[in-house]
Design a protein that fits this description.
The structure holds two protein chains of two kinds. Chain A is of the alpha/beta class. The radius of gyration of chain B is 20 Å and the shape is globular. Classes of the chains: A alpha/beta, B mainly alpha.
Chain lengths: 507, 317
């Protein structure tokens, strides 16, 4: 590798945001034909650094050399003109447009008339060259997440990108799709492309990257070390600055009585199409049921139906021996049910309200918080202070609006609020999505603690490692049904991957 | 009734529908493009009124009807600039701003137009098909403009690069932004285009379809246009049909008063005429109720970013 020239070099990059030193004289470079992994916790400055490279931010100091030439990037278009393309974690594809339309979006040729059939041919040829199979006429919303990612890669290749930045590309893929992506990445590097690979998944970094650079609090803590000689534990220590437990210690528990049971549960999605097509499962006290599946296979609707946010259209759900339905007093049920929603800032909390106010959202109408029809401010503050201390929530004060909290601290606050009610059932949806290693560890510990205190927990996640390490049992959802159930211990990850993709697998 | 009379009546009704549907069509097409870019404009009624009033005043003072069109169109566009600034740059609520702009347009046209109320038109429209006693050169011209413009706009929206950019900005602005498309500029462009079209629609009313100026000249046509956008599911070609359909609903009570049609004549029974006058409004209310449900809007194909101001992610885009 050492003979390859650098495809780009960033030297002494400085970028500040109000109150934060996002990049403090950062040097970063990537060789031609190399996969260079960029690691760091949330807020370490990875995204900032990559947004500088992708032309979205302008650094206050430092220089950027691409292909041996010093350049200044004013916009993403400048970056792409210099061969830099970024694939964001949230795909930048317009769902209602076709693949071909997304390919040409933002290009300056053809100038006026779109000749889509010509674009479709070009896309098909390019797809063949890199073995990225997609139908150029398909609409984006019809494609699976894995296919959408292939479209994103193609879009960048179509624009002539030589340097590809991928932000958490594997977060939403099945294990098979991850393997396919890695094959594509190797194909691309063999054709002279360079790839910057951002990920929290250290196993994958070790598997795909040639070199690794680690950022912590805006500074480089390891620069271009060889990935082959590194271990997960070393990398994690470089990221967080302390040891991280990867193996979560889990006591053996005998599952108790059935807390939640569904029989042939059905529900529609927002477009009034069937999303749950008959879900039947049981969940016992002191047990974590992990629900795996590719996004959009009914997991969201399942969580919403179980928490009373969406009406079911058929079937039964029984919570603590009581059948739930439209007549249910959800306010009363809610006291025994903890919900960690997918969208923590819009559903899980009220961004403009303070930490203290958010901490009582669940019990504002109960003693001791409620005093007649008013709220006892002193009791509220007492509760908030207690939760902030107990759950180690980093906040300037309990009067701070929660939109100022980091994702990890907000999630801890939501968990604290939900757990403090002493729930017998917890529905946790993607509880660690977007959280860094340290915060993820804290959330995992809280979930395990709930299990040990005898709550039944449904954990919906796309992170198979998380599901395997936390769950007692695993259920795989595909197209609104549970297509397979198995004990988590000794579960075959390949088989789960196939089930997630809808392949029939013998139970 | 002779077959000749029947033929002439049918022709009157059909042409009447086209004529009275055309101002609606202009406003609807403009609003479709504005909404496809992600901005809802409830100020259409105000812009139509300002367009109608300023167009008529220009015609009255200069005697040049085409100059009237130009001025009416421009003033509609000018008023939409205010809505664009409030909703795109200041990121205020689009519904509130739209309502305020309608109030402003209504008030402005009422005060500035007070001198023109009931004034005689400078020159009657040039009748070119005297057999129906109403088909004029001006009417034929605006109808033809509408018939040509709607498919052109459809083509522009679906088959050209600026159309692709426009649709992308309304569906997923951050994706468009990440590819170097200026979301704000595009939204400004189409909100102003919507205002120009509303101004054109308003002037078409005060200059051609029903020449003259009275307070509240457009009698709610702007609101109907907002409803028609939903009814047309944001498609310019469907906009053509629904605008003519509503034109027919508006026109029918007038044509049915024709004494030549004794069976359903409203002349003998005025309450039928009044009920029929209500039809376009009733239909609009019904559509707006349907369209106010988010689930229904999604199913009808509303632009995904409709109603949301765009703010570029300040950190970690």
């Amino acid at each position: 590798m050492s003979e390859s020239p650098n495809s780009f070099e960033m030297r002494g990059i400085v970028k500040r945001f109000p109150g934060v030193f996002a990049n403090d004289h950062v040097d970063f470079s990537c060789k031609v034909g190399e996969v260079h992994a960029l690691l760091g916790e949330n807020g370490a400055g990875k995204s900032t650094l990559m947004n500088v490279l992708a032309g979205l931010y302008r650094p206050e100091a430092g220089e950027l050399v691409i292909g041996g030439k010093q350049v200044t990037l004013h916009s993403p278009q400048d970056a792409i003109a210099n061969g830099v393309g970024m694939i964001h974690q949230h795909f930048m594809l317009v769902p209602s447009h076709s693949v071909a339309e997304n390919m040409v979006l933002g290009l300056n040729k053809p100038r006026f008339f779109l000749n889509l059939s010509q674009v479709e041919e070009q896309v098909a040829a390019l797809a063949k060259q890199y073995d990225l199979n997609v139908n150029p006429r398909a609409k984006i919303w019809e494609l699976s997440v894995g296919e959408q990612q292939r479209v994103e890669v193609l879009k960048m290749l179509f624009r002539g990108a030589k340097i590809l930045i991928m932000d958490e590309p594997t977060a939403v893929l099945t294990p098979q799709e991850v393997e396919a992506l890695f094959r594509t990445l190797r194909e691309m590097t063999s054709q002279g492309h360079s790839i910057v690979f951002i990920s929290h998944k250290l196993d994958e970094v070790v598997a795909i990257a040639d070199r690794v650079t680690v950022l912590r609090k805006g500074k480089i803590t390891a620069s271009g070390v060889s990935a082959k000689g590194s271990t997960k534990a070393q990398l994690a220590r470089l990221m967080v600055g302390r040891e991280i437990l990867f193996q979560i210690e889990k006591k053996k528990m005998e599952p108790g009585k059935i807390i939640l049971e569904t029989k042939n549960l059905q529900a529609d999605n927002d477009r009034a199409l069937p999303a749950l097509r008959g879900v039947s499962m049981q969940l016992r006290a002191g047990e974590i049921l992990g629900v795996a599946g590719v996004a959009g296979n009914g997991q969201r609707e399942l969580a919403e139906v179980l928490t009373g946010l969406r009406n079911s259209t058929g079937g039964e759900m029984i919570f603590d021996q009581v059948a739930l339905g439209p007549h249910t007093n959800w306010r009363e049920i809610g006291q025994r049910l903890a919900h960690i929603p997918e969208d923590r800032s819009a559903v899980g909390s009220v961004p403009g309200l303070s930490v203290a106010e958010n901490s009582i959202l669940k019990c504002f109408n109960l003693t001791p918080i409620a005093k007649g029809w008013s709220i006892d401010a002193a009791a509220m503050q007492k509760k908030a202070v207690k939760l902030v201390d107990e759950y180690q929530i980093a906040t300037a004060s309990i009067q701070t609006p929660v939109r100022m909290l980091s994702g990890g601290n907000l999630q801890k606050l939501i968990l604290a609020r939900e757990i403090s009610g002493g729930p017998s059932l917890m529905i946790a949806v993607h509880p660690t999505r977007g959280l860094d290693v340290g915060a993820t560890e804290a959330v995992h510990k809280l979930l395990i603690k709930q299990r040990e205190s005898g709550a039944a927990i449904m954990l919906i996640s796309e992170d198979l490692d998380e599901l395997l390490s936390l769950s007692d049992r695993l259920a795989v959802m595909y197209e609104g049904k549970i297509v397979g159930e198995m004990p988590a211990e000794g579960a075959d990850i390949q088989r789960i991957g196939l089930m997630m993709a809808g392949t029939k697998v013998e139970a | 009734m002779t077959s000749e009379a029947l033929f002439s009546l049918a022709l009157t009704i059909i042409f009447g529908a086209l004529v009275s549907g055309t101002p609606l069509l202009f406003a609807t097409l403009g609003e479709i493009l504005a909404e496809r870019s992600g901005v809802m404009n409830l100020g259409i009624e105000g812009m139509m009124l300002v367009g109608a009033m300023s167009g008529f005043a220009t015609w009255f003072n200069t005697g040049n009807i085409w100059l009237g069109f130009l001025v009416g169109t421009l003033f509609g566009g000018l008023l939409s600039l205010l809505h664009a600034y409030i909703t795109i740059t200041l990121r205020a609520d689009q519904v509130v701003s739209g309502l305020a702009v309608t109030f402003l347009g209504t008030g402005l046209s009422s005060i500035l137009g007070a001198a023109y109320v009931g004034k005689k038109v400078p020159t009657p429209n040039t009748i070119i098909v005297p057999i129906l006693n109403r088909i004029s050169l001006q009417e034929v011209t605006v109808v033809l403009i509408g018939l040509v413009v709607a498919p052109l706009i459809w083509y522009y929206l679906n088959r050209t690069r600026p159309g692709l950019n426009l649709r992308s900005v309304g569906e997923y602005p951050s994706a468009a932004d990440s590819l170097g498309i200026n979301v704000y500029r595009i939204r400004y462009m189409y909100v102003i285009f919507g205002g120009l079209m509303a101004g054109l629609g308003g002037s078409a009313m005060s200059l051609v379809t029903d020449p003259g100026w009275v307070d509240g000249k457009t009698s709610g046509m702007g609101w109907i246009a907002v409803g028609l956008v939903i009814f047309a599911s944001w498609d310019p070609l469907r906009g053509l049909w629904v605008a003519y359909f509503f034109g027919l609903l508006r026109r029918l009570p007038l044509d049915l008063q024709n004494p030549a049609l004794p069976l359903i004549s409203t002349a003998n029974n005025p309450s039928i005429g009044r009920v029929m006058d209500m039809l376009p409004y009733l239909a609009t209310i019904f559509i707006l109720i349907l369209g106010s449900r988010e689930a229904m809007r999604k199913r009808l194909g509303a632009p995904a970013a409709l109603g949301n101001p765009y703010i570029r992610g300040e950190r970690g885009l």
